[in-house]
Please model this.
Amino acid sequence: MIHFDRVAKRYSNGFEALKSVSFDIAAGEMVFLTGHSGAGKSTLLKLIMAMEQPSRGQVLVNGSNLNRLADRHIPLHRRQIGVVFQNHQLLFDRSVFDNVALPLVIAGFPPSDVGRRVRAALDKVGLLHKEARNPLELSGGEQQRVGIARAVVNKPKILLADEPTGNLDPELSAEIMELFRQFNEVGVTLLIASHDIELLRRQQKRVLALREGELLSDQVPTALHSDGAKGHRGHHE
Amino acid sequence: MSRARKAPLPTRAGARPKVTGVSDRARAWRQHHGRSARDSLRRLLVVPVRSTLTVLMLGIALALPALLYLALANVGQLSGHWASSHQMSAYLKAGARPAAVEALTATLRARPDVAAVTAISPEQGLAEFARQTGLTGALANVKNNPLPWVLLVQPVGTAPESLATLRDQLAAELVVDEVRLDMAWLTRLQAIMQLGQRFALGLGCLLGLGMLLAIGNTLRLAIENRREEILVVKLVGGTDAFVRRPFLYTGLWYGAGGGIWALVLTQLGLWLVSKPVAQLANSYGSQFTLQGLGAGETLILLMVALIIGWLGAWLAVGRHLRDIKPQ
Ligand SMILES: Nc1ncnc2c1ncn2[C@@H]1O[C@H](COP(=O)(O)OP(=O)(O)OP(=O)(O)O)[C@@H](O)[C@H]1O
Ligand SMILES: [Mg+2]
Model:
């Protein structure tokens, strides 16, 4: 589903944020991306979103080569990917409902469908009762969940999350991870950037570790907390 | 995995919910247009003073060339009056015999470029002169009438060249002493009118450019204010057209407001001068009345306003949206 082939990214200031990174994420996988600050996690996610172009190598998403993606097809490409950012990027000039509805309005869904889908997504993240509120009136965790609802309202095949639990307490983080697991169970491919080692250990999922722009390791962490061992699944590479 | 085909349209991806049909899509698209239009208007009305000032400025910039255009049109109408009522006076030689006068009158009447010929005998001329000057008593005793025969020739066309030809041919006639046709003022007036039209055009272009820049600048601020929103919209797959739409409607609203103000100001300007003009015309015994904007011209003014609003927005949005990319 997501395929990186010797991808390098050099920013215009000459800084090489990624150096020859290769990996493959199959459809329906849930993968974590970790590494120190500045390792290149966000850069990698931006490449998948076609927010940045690789300076070398190829990125393939759902079979299409992003190097060959015409500018006018970028919006359509992005519509098949849901994104959750740490700074959730909600719009404070409109209600929670309208925030979540945005991708549907953009994609041209008829209004009757929009209402149904938005409520389903809000229900999923447990915020159905707050649809009329302004996101400003919500707590950090709630805002994060609105962001997730917006990312999944379109039922994307791929969900990217950049530090989705960045400044949330452990309980909320666990809740959000549980949400991600549920999406994964219905077939969504997930790639989640996080430097929360504890959380990665508990999840027992495949982890791509970056260091200074290079792929350091690609494996499932050894279980320290045996309660998560049941979820251990083998992966190639 | 490494297929080198052209990227397939990702919308067809299997798991993605399908939008029901073309008509639904069209409906959603129309609805977004309606929503953008309403939303843009609402945003303008939230800051009424600023919007009014912008729109008023556009109105003034449009009203100026419109008024100038009207002034020219009115002068043109006036000069048309004069030109068509303009006639040549052919003064015949003293002692021209009535038979010769009659013959010349008949030849002239037969010409295609002559509409009418009136022959005024020396006696008639004297009587007229006496009536106009009030010297009836004094002139009644004049024995030796000094006035010649005069032929008033009404030409068909008003083109200076054809008038000149007629005059020259008339002057070449044996019995004709002198032909008076003051064409200099006509040519001069036409030159001035042409200058005025050029000036109006130039002024209109300059003001139009100024309006584009003003709208562009206003929209740059609007775009900057909605930067966050644009980023999010682009991030979740909004096309450029989608992002542009509300701003284009903002431009259209500005254009509409500017056009209406321009009409109001033009009417106001007309109303201000209409009284003095009527008095002036009256003092000359003329029926002349000022002409305002016709239905077609009103429509054109509004269209120009809308186009300028839209174009200004389009240029600004095209320039600034490129700079706003999700990072
Ligand atoms: N637009 C840019 N121009 C230049 N350099 C950039 C740009 N964006 C990122 N970088 C650099 O690239 C490197 C990788 O950045 P990136 O944001 O991918 O790191 P990260 O792994 O997400 O870090 P963090 O955990 O702090 O979010 C950093 O050193 C950063 O300074
Ligand atoms: Mg980052």
